[in-house]
Amino acid sequence: MSCNPLIGDEGARALARSLPDTLRELGLVGCGIKDTGGEAILRWAYKSSRLRMICIEQNPFSERLKAQSRQLAQKNENLLVIV
């Protein structure tokens, strides 16, 4: 889903509500997602049982959300988080 700047916060929130927890990789690079959408995606990622890679760079996240993303990676050594 990367390189789709029209996803934005609303699209990210809708995706977070519908993504299966068995998804292994998620790419949302350059999708115009700000903190509201990013937080929804991170909440989903914390619950995901099989996620191994999440690429969410090139979105206008705050430093706080970037730090939360890095914490997700620290809590799950099998997960690559690119933010």
Count of extended strands: 3
Order of helices and strands: HEHEHE
CATH homologous superfamily descriptor:
Ribonuclease Inhibitor
CATH class, please?
A: Alpha Beta
Largest sheet: 3 strands, parallel
CATH architecture: Alpha-Beta Horseshoe
Q: Quickly count the domains.
A: 1
Q: Average pLDDT across residues?
A: 96
Task: Specify the overall morphology.
Answer: globular
How helical, in percent, are the residues?
40-55%
**Beta-strand percentage?**
5-15%
Count the DSSP helices: 3
Radius of gyration: 11 Å
Structure description:
- With 83 residues, the protein is mainly alpha-helical.
- The chain has one domain (8-82): Ribonuclease Inhibitor (Leucine-rich repeat, LRR (right-handed beta-alpha superhelix), Alpha-Beta Horseshoe), CATH 3.80.10.10.
- The chain is 45% helix and 11% strand.
- It contains 3 helices and 3 strands; from the N terminus they run H-E-H-E-H-E.
- Strands 1-2-3 form a 3-stranded parallel sheet, covered by helices on one side.
- Helix 2 (35-47) links the parallel strand 1 (25-27) and strand 2.
- Helix 2 (35-47) packs parallel to helix 3 (63-75).
Summary keywords:
mainly alpha; 83 residues; three-stranded parallel beta sheet; 3 helices; Leucine-rich repeat, LRR (right-handed beta-alpha superhelix); globular; 45% helix
